[in-house]
Specification:
five-stranded parallel sheet, elongated, 5 strands, alpha/beta
Amino acid sequence: MDQLDANQTAAIHDLGRPIFDSHRKAVRPSRNGHRRWFVVVAMVIAVLLLGEVFGRVLAHRGAVPVRWNIEELPQLEQQMKALGPGGADVVVVGSSVAGAGFDPSLFTPSTPGSYHSAYDAWVVGPNVTAMSFVAQHLAIPDLHPKAVVIVVTARELNDNGTSQADLWQAITTSPAYNEVLGKETFLERLGDKLGRYSALIRLRSVMRSPSAVVHTLLHGPLTAAQAALAPRGNATDYNTPLQFSAAHEAQERQALAGFHFGGRQLTQLENLVRALRREGIRPLVVNYPVLHSVYDSLFPHPGQDQKYAAALKVAMKSIHADYLDADAAGWSRSDFSDENHLNDKGRERVTAMVRQALAVPEG
């Protein structure tokens, strides 16, 4: 065997020695790593404490957790819960068309028949899917009505309405959505429990919105109380002389874009009617009036509104639904505040029509 040179011999001797660094000192675990972790943990705790302090400041200013991502629904929910079971014999569901065009105060103890009180559970710009959710999961559990009036126009029944779909998405992504359906996740339930003790957790939905934080600090909480609602839900800001705006026209034209009737939204309407009957609640579907001299031009193609009205009547007859075509009663410009919202004069007239329809025995 060849002799090992000096370098090889040194390497063999080194195998059993401790590892040395370049300065021939043993490598030992550094304390710097522990210090870094301590600093990170301390910073996290400090941030959480500051967040908790800030959350308590917001709470002191009156901030409340965001439950719904649309303006009217929190206030409507509060009103319905305050009225409680039996608080309304009749519940109306629909869009702002129903909010402007129905007057619950005209249902009184002296009203003929079985319906002596009413509540207007409308939201801005829904499709029938959203209206069905409001009826079945909010209004009916809170109020236990005897009848539900389902207010529709072509807008709510447009299968291709993108703004209507956006409104429904806003509802389904709201913090309260899973809670109302009884489908809260473990983390959502944990957050609810921790929120009883922590303002940071309880008001996290507010603190995610810089505009809401600024408004709360400067002016008080930004809440749905700003919505112009009467005590029984109906809108109070549509009693104006007839006026048109480019913004509202563009909004309605978009809602009617790609108009299609007879698909999933009609199915939702039919399913709602059946569900109400199973619950022993009387459904009444009402096709509400619009100002045809203006509104018809917003459809993609001429004549679509008339075809929609005829098809809706046939569809409601096929499921033996109580149906009122209020739009066919004949309306003038003096009944409207814009293309599709009634003023107080029109609202009083159509509410009387609904009262009269409900006075007739079902079927």
